[in-house]
Fold:
Amino acid sequence: MSEAAQRETRWALALLWLVPALWTVNYIVARKAPGLIGPYMLALGRWSLAALILVLIARAELWQQRAAIARAWRQYLVLGTLGMLICGAWVYEGARSTGAMNIALIYSASPVLISLGAMWWLGEGLGARQVAGVLLALAGVLHVVVRGRWTALADVQFVPGDAWILAATVSWAAYALLQKRWPSPLGATARLAAICVGGTLVLLPPALWEALQPGAACLGADALRLVVVAALVPGVGAYWIYGWAQKILGAGRVAVALYLGPLYAAVAAWWVLGEPPGWHHAVGALLILPGVFLVTRPVRRPPPARS
Structure:
């Protein structure tokens, strides 16, 4: 591996720890949105603003690759549906009846789906250390879910919002795997711009339908602030880093960093919502963090044998 490639890999591994923190902002936005703006309008505002920003940044590359984009337009609509409509509006829909910690915890199951899909569908190998890391991190997530009371597993109750988040979790796994399955000549910024445009197009009909319903929330200053924050932080920031890092590290290794979501969400809930974390969060951290380290640690390959 060249020095430039090694440096790029180190940056990808470092920035990967930032992605769950950026997504935690989206959970807070989702909890504050009810009564201010509908889920589809919020998702439309978020991704149309993100699309505008990214298109302006990558306009030269997008114009240069316009023929390739036109050939793959169906892919961008599919990715926009999975990543922006389902993983956007449905998260906001679910947040009406479930909490930020629940959203983060359910989403933290997506690395398992992505890692298994990357192994079976994309041919990305997982060594014994990576498998151990997945199991260790999953044990930490479950420990947080049951609040340290493993005998309470059978008593876990799901509300309608959890079902929306579960659907979004499966959709995120499909979104991540299809990005790797469908290679693109576009760079990370231009590709995300094209996906955002696709997401905006598929969000437009349900958002308009939502806006025409009786009693629909009127857009005010608070709603616009939520749109801007959602577009810049968990939108452009998190999605760009995730897509860029996945090209370098692979779908399976990148996905496991999402296990950090529950820990970041716990900190955010304490700081923003005044909900102090419990000992089960600390124990979960002691399991999740080493698990993420094991999976994301570069695989050392033996040097070629001399002839």
